[in-house]
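Q: I have 528 residues here and want to know how they pack in 3D. Can you give me a structure?
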Amino acid sequence: MSMKIQIEEPLIFSLTGQRANNEDFVYPTAPTSDTRLFMVCDGIGGWDKGEVASRLVAEAIADYFQQYPPVAVTKTYLIDTITHAHLALAEYLQQNPLLSRVGSTLALLYLDEGGVTVAHVGDSRVYHLRKGQILHQTQDHRYVLELVSEGIITQEQAQTHPRRNSLSRSIGVESNNLSLKIDNPTVNYLTDIQAGDYFFLCTDGVLEQLNEEKLKEVFKNPSSQKGMFQIEQILSICQNQTRDNYSGCLVSIRDVIKEETFSTVSLPAKKSLRAWIGLAILWFSQLCFAQNGSTYAIVVGIADYKITDYRTGDLKFADKDALRFADFLKSPAGGNVPNQNIKVLTNKVATQKAILNALKLFEQATDQDRVIFYFSGHGLNGGFIPYDVKKNDPASVLTHRDVKNRFKSSAASTKLCIADACLSGSMTIQQAWNIPESKTLPKNADVVLMLSSRSTQSSVESGVARGGLFTFFLLNGLRGKADANHDKTVTIKELFRYVSPLLKRNTPNGQAPMFYGKFSDNLVLSYL
């Protein structure tokens, strides 16, 4: 059963209250009846630049929805969007070294043909109301509420507890700890949606004066003003009374049209039956591999080097690209790779010794598995640059041969080396990459090098993409944009045809990626 949810033009407000400035942000700032994504965010009290943090979080999440339109808004998908928001905050903090921490709450509403997704982090809320009754409301992520639920303190004690205003979850980054700790959102999927329902998103400032009983009273009587009466009532209650910023978004359901959905399969014409069966066998064999095989991955990203005089100095986004790639592997499209099968090394952790030790993980793979080595950072002819590289000391470089030897010792049937580094194309020369026959290597093994540039080219980072352009287009392609035939898989051939022209067109030197090795054009890299 699918449903077409029609809404009135949404109504929003965001007021300063008795504060000096407004640290709330409502997205979008000019919604229409076609809008499907709504958010209210509140900069964390006592932290830096709350007005910037709330805006960055909302815009980063909206940007993620636009770049990677969801088939379904799952919890995993929302964690990916929140990770994207963390990265935006981390980048802002790095660009403003005088700040110590930035963060925000989030309340989110998304409408699709399956119903309504409600998600939140922190104490901004979403209410679902019908005829003066609250059908659903989010529960604040507050430290004292967790103590109450665990039986440590009572409800009465929570009201006077010294940490009664402390959040237990938020979207925030601190300068003394830029490693991302992602607080999971609470997510609910609502399918009981009727004409005349309301969804009300608000920051905690609204709740200073508007308790549940008042809220029920406001929404008790139906209005022909498409929510305007309710908003006027709320503003009247809060005006000149609320100390904090107070912001909200009201989405009124005009109509819900429910439709039965049927799946039909047309048999192929007789003359194409053999081709159809061949494609079905290929798809099934690839699917079996995806379900039965395991993936082991080493993901390295270095932006902040120990020495700063190497070539052009530090990078801006290489570490973030590594985190994005690891997040992709953990997503359904990337294979839902478990955390224990992924080792992520960034910046000072990514020493030459640490990377080589991490690559021993590949020895665990069987001939049913795949192994992936991803590197983002500086490169040179014949190698990659680890965090602790020493000037004029070739022995401190992570050579291509070092990586090759670790791959050689793995029995995996699929081996992927992905590099977003200058001069990475030098990895294709015979002396640097020559995998001889091995007793452990299956005869039909796929060995793939996906390299960001030729052996004479630099690799470009982009402030707009907030990362290396090769990784940016690579991940976009893997998440579905490269699926040219719309069969819900992305093959290596489709990925190259997607990435290569975009990278050449969007880089000043016409950066040309290289896909090199021993593999079938139909090797599937992601499942959508």
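Q: Anything worth noting?
A: The first strand starts at residue 2 and ends at 7. The CA atoms of residues 423 and 457 lie 5 Å apart.
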